[in-house]
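Researcher: Go.
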Amino acid sequence: MTEEKILDEIYDFMDDLHLKGAFGASNLTLQLLHPDEMETDALLAYLTVTLSAAHKLPFRDEFFENVKKELKTRDDWSDDLLAGLE
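Model: Structure:
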């Protein structure tokens, strides 16, 4: 699967959950992800797609911190990489 297709799947899946009001399932999805096993773009996609529902996703803050910790170990890290996604 191409990276573009993976990103589309992330956005479609999470958007569908949010449109259905399935915030518990969205929150659980974030809990089951392993940032150390994921590409940077996929991590940013999850943070982006969940931003508007952050107040309904209790685990999102922890997920954000886990992503930040992981991304800081990578060559593509920059201080503004997560700007606006907190």
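Model: Residues 74 and 80 are 14 Å apart (CA to CA).
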